[in-house]
Amino acid sequence: RLEVPDSSTTMFASPTRAFAPARCARRCASSQTPRIRAGLLDAFRSPKASKHVAPAAAADATTVARLERAIALTDVRDGGAVKPTTTRRAIMAGNWKMNPKTASEAATLAALVGAAAGMDGESARACEVLVCPPAPFIADVARILEGTGVAIGAQNIYHEASGAFTGEMSAEMAKSVGCTHVLVGHSERRTLFGETDEVCNVKTRKIIDMGMTAVLCIGETKEEYEAGQVKKICARQLAGALAGIEATEMNKVIIAYEPVWAIGTGLTATPAIAQSVHAGIRDWVRENYGNAVANKIQIQYGGSVKPESVDELMQAPDIDGCLVGGASLNADQFGRIFNYDVAPEGPTRLWAEEVVACGNQLGESPVWSVERQMLYWVDAPSGSLYSWDLKSAPTKVNFGETLGCVALRSNNTLLLGLESGLHAYDPTTKALTFVSEFEAGLNTRPNDGRTDREGNFVIGSYNNAHRVDAQPIGGLWRLPANGGALEEMLDYKFRCSNCICFTKDGGTMFFCDTPTRRIYQFDYNPRTGPSNRRLLYELPSSMNGGPDGAQCDANGNVWAAISGAGQVIRITPRGEVDLTVELPVKQPTSVTFGGPGLNTLFITTRAENGRIDAGSLFACQVFDVAGVPEAEYVDRSPVKGDAVSANIGPVRPGRPGAASAKFCTQCGVAFDKPTARFCAQCGTARR
């Protein structure tokens, strides 16, 4: 992910984590190693200062490798990127804690688990199985489970071999009664018994020296989660517990991520949130132990895992099993968990990861220029335009007013949908020229916009008060190629335009009035506009949110961001969802295809309370289809205006200050006063 250093003159710094193509939708049996194209990231490796921004710090080899993965620099075969795979085998572990009450109950539970595991041994299962009974029951449980392939673990050990340590069990004792694994650092041990990272380190060292495997538990409290400290806490716990452990010894370590707020509460981090944390853990391992160790280490998820949630969790590519608490005390439930469905029915899943920590209030309108090899997007309320060449750090320009969208324009210039109207902008000279007013006299602003295949710019509006008055007052407009007045294209009004995009041949246009939750398709003629409206897709009642920005791929599928559901969905021309992209944040806002092969999906998001990564730019690699080059608005007239007197250059990530927020990030209503600190409609604090 790209972050910004604490500096008065700043530029987005080296990524701390980028998404990896290896995090794909399904686990496969074989693997292929992509070849990296040399030279593309030279500017990132040795960045140079520009006229407007300070130079970025040079990145180390690990950082460069992560960015290379992020922009999907893989060979293209058969029209798509080579899909990397993993051979990690999952492991399901049952932590019985201080249960059951008697030895006979423990024996019965062990027998039932053994029956669920089957007598064919572990080779018949898709995963390893481990149970960790209380110390008095270990020997009996090990004897009952002998031959089933179910491994035995201890819940705790003391690091000394013997001595006057009343109530403790040594690693030697645990191994002598059949234990091959030991839990270390479980949250209950940390919280109730005061175990520190240093104590976990001593125990981990002892377990490895005894030839057993340490299941190292890490995770954050609810307060730490809400403060956005998840990865910081996990990194601290990993560094403490693994101090002095060499890379050659990491094959004796399993990591179990357990969000403390989810243990025993019935709450479960969404698969996308869990995947995001697991990816960060794997990247920590990569940074400290190298690619080979990171690619092999098993990372479990723990936190109220149930039979109903396991299939979905196990689709996440960095989740390599589960550490199960209460459900492991029921043999039927635990058996369902370790016999999870490796290929459940439903859409294929991809997993997006944060790549730029830009802290947008409302990121929107990503567009990729094939000619310039540049990604553009906007933060609408703050009036900021971002650009990123994927080689060096992203930069931004602030225009001091709401900026609804950006489009490519002839001669390496841009077309901007500002609150004051449409403007042409030259990124090189910083010149800004007024082009057209936009719905003068209405409480609206430019929102979603795309250029059709003939070079006309199509743009819809946003009723700033639509969450209050529910009035459809906005229109859909076309700015003709080579200049001319705006022309209204639809014979009806709406509240919040979104999903504007066009098929590769330009003959079909898609559009949505977000509050209706319906995406329509139209026959499209670049001279006469849209006609023959028909429903493509309506969000089911079980899905939260509404359709936001969208883009078409080369096969005519629509990729729509569903703001409120934490997903991008791919809708086929038949109106069926055959793929979802999962995000760890709830409000993706728009999408586009980019990167050298047009097979990277970039996703903008908006700010949310309690999520430090909300408002960042996310991305994932798409393996079965590519995008279509973004069309340019055709207007070759030079941009002759004065250079924009705007704040040029990157700024620190995070939530923008109150003075720059014109619209409530929660309900979208405009603040009634420049000095208002809270939204008059919903009461949300101004950000």
Tell me about this structure.
The protein is of the alpha+beta class and 687 residues long. Helix content is 18%, strand content 28%. It is built from 14 helices and 36 strands. The strands form 8 sheets. The protein has an 8-stranded parallel barrel with strand order 3-4-5-6-7-8-9-10, surrounded by 5 helices. α4 links the parallel β4 and β5. The longest helix has 19 residues, at 271-289. Residues 1-67, 69-84 and 650-660 have low confidence and may be disordered.
Mean pLDDT: 84
The coarse silhouette is: elongated
Separation of termini?
23 Å
Number of DSSP strands? 36
Task: Name the beta content range.
Answer: 25-35%
What is the quaternary state of this protein? Answer: single chain
The biggest sheet, with number of strands, parallel, antiparallel or mixed sense and barrel status, is: 8 strands, parallel, barrel
Question: How many alpha or pi helices?
Answer: 14
> Major sheet: order of its strands?
3-4-5-6-7-8-9-10
Write a brief structural summary.
By secondary structure, this protein is α+β, with helices and mostly antiparallel strands.
